[in-house]
Amino acid sequence: MDVDITRSRVGGRARAPPSKSYTHRAILAAGYSDGAVVADPLVSADTRATMRAVEAFGGTVDRTDGDLDVTGFAGRPGVPDDVIDCANSGTTTRLVTACAALGDGLTVLTGDDSLRSRPQGPLLDAVEQLGGRAESTRGNGQAPLVVGGPIAGGTVSIPGDVSSQYITALLMAGAVTDDGIDIDLETELKSAPYVDITLEVLDAFGIEAAETTTGYRVPGGQRYERVDPYPVPGDFSSMSYLLAAGAVAGAEGGVVVEGAYPSAQGDSAIVDVLERMGADISWDREAGEITVRRSDLTGVEVDVGDTPDLLPTIAVLGAVADGDTRIVNCEHVRLKETDRVRAMATELETLGAAVTEEEDTLTIHGGESDLRGATVAGHDDHRIVMSLAIAGLVAEGTTAVAGADHVDVSFPGFFDVLYDLGAELDEHER
Fold first, then answer.
1. Sheet containing strand 133-136, strands side by side
2. What is the widest separation between alpha-carbon atoms in the chain?
3. What residues form DSSP beta bridges with 148?
4. Beta 106-110 vs 84-85: how paired, if at all?
5. How many Å apart are CA 99 and CA 151, to the nearest integer?
6. Is 235 one of the annotated active-site residues of the chain?
7. In terms of Cα–Cα distance, which of 285, 428, 391, 422 is closest to 11?
8. What are the extents of the domains in the chain?
9. Is residue 33 a known part of a binding site?
10. Rounded CA gap, 276 and 180, in Å?
11. Selecting from 3.30.1490.20, 3.40.50.150, 3.65.10.10, 3.30.950.10, what CATH number does the domain 20-211+227-231 have?
12. Spatial contact of 123 and 100, defined as CB atoms under 8 Å apart
């Protein structure tokens, strides 16, 4: 599906979907337990992959009145009858890799073309350090993967600058090993707030885990408790597009985003970014509402070491702002569904923005940018698609975004929400 977006004003109330990060972790934590109810989950292409994995290991996942009723495998995953298809979900792949290492047999994990290009090597090495089997079938550290155990725990040394999901995977699996897992970080941890999310979810399920002077530790011999229900908070990564829409294209009264309650999500930093850029934005944390109005923005420097998913949104804001917006510490953002640094540089230039791309920095020269409608590629990446759609709200004329159906990964109703806010858009098949 493609979508055509014509320059528009948007306003009104909207609710971002539940958090993808929390949903993944809650589903798997429920799988590790005897069972639990995950309330108000995000049901999307990615989280369905995690549901399939829980079922492949011997659990069940039933949707009831908008919730997920999970019967777990009590910390002892069975050997799947078939290959686990993780589709486009890197989170599923990494979390499930460590889970598979608990099984007394072999699990095969694969996914689509994009997923099979993403790095898994450090996590495979960690599983082998723990005495498990973990191989890439092509010998390149990428899926398809063959993983088996059972591991009993131990100490692992792993880089922290590739993916925080490796740490999450080991913490979640380590709780049910005999000896627990000590994680020594070889490099500074990037995307650290995502591990904070993991620790928050683990605590809710009765699991003790903590940061140490060298990394993290989770004691073994623990048992995931039943939680009924576990409520999933709203997703700040998804909110970022709605907040950006209000800041660059808000009608009178602006955009009010509901469900914005404080949590461990690093991407709540989008509020601070918008404030620093000069946006008229206010956050009622008790009510869980953020209001943002169209504002004259000024470029700033933003370090996305802990918030890689915000890069596409900030890049679009920079193209509208006066002056330069420098997005720094972003080399790891090249390892997502696509090279998001290169993708945003390429497509914003297509729309008329002036951009300088370096290995670890993306600079958008807002004062030299004049956005004009054009046909841009979504790069089969939900975050690229949604950010370019926001650019289309302010670009002169009409912007055509190819591959718009990929929003199903994290925000299935994105274009419906944008339309309800007043965006002039047309969805059509290719």
1. 84-85, 106-110, 145-148, 133-136
2. 62
3. 106, 133
4. parallel
5. 10
6. no
7. 422
8. 2-17+234-428, 20-211+227-231
9. no
10. 43
11. 3.65.10.10
12. no
Q: Which one-letter amino acid corresponds to residue 429?
A: E
| Active-site choice (46, 182, 309, 324) | 309
Q: Which residue carries 């975050």 as its tokens? A: 383
Q: How many CA atoms lie within 13 A of 76 on its CB side?
A: 4
Strands 375-377 vs 398-402: parallel, antiparallel or unpaired: parallel
Residues in the chain: 430
Tokens of 321: 């702002």
Helix or strand run (H / E) with residue 26: helix 20-32
190 is in an annotated binding site: no
Give the per-residue pLDDT at 251. 95
Give Cα separations from 2 to 26, 85, 245, 341, 358 (angstroms). 32, 26, 19, 22, 30
pLDDT tens-digit series, residues 160-208: 999 999 999 999 999 999 999 999 999 999 999 999 999 999 999 999 9
Say whether 259 sits in a helix, a strand or coil.
coil
Name the residue among 11, 7, 5, 37 with its Cα closest to residue 23.
Answer: 37
Q: What are phi and psi of 317, to 5 degrees?
A: -60, -40
| The amino acid at 420 | D
pTM attached to this predicted model: 0.86
**Residues 45, 87 contacting (CB under 8 angstroms):** yes
343 vs 365: CA distance, rounded Å: 16
Q: What is the pLDDT of residue 337?
A: 86
CB 303 within 8 A of CB 266: no
Q: What is the CA radius of gyration of the chain?
A: 21
pLDDT at 430 over 80: no
What sign for the dihedral angle of Cα 263, 310, 8, 410? negative
Is 334 annotated to bind ligand? no
**CATH ID of 2-17+234-428, from 3.30.1330.60, 2.30.40.10, 3.30.70.580, 3.65.10.10:** 3.65.10.10
Measure the CA angle with vertex 218, ends 214 and 221; round to 5°: 150
Query: Which residue, 419, 351, 423, is CA-closest to 384?
Result: 351
164 assigned to a ligand binding site: yes
Residue type, 69: D
Whose CA is closest to 96, among 121, 77, 70?
Answer: 77
pLDDT tens digits for 262-318? 989 999 999 999 999 999 999 999 999 999 999 999 999 999 999 999 999 999 999
> How many CA atoms, within 13 angstroms, populate the side-chain half-sphere of residue 29?
33
- For the chain, the straight-line distance linking the first and the last C-alpha, in angstroms and rounded, comes to 6
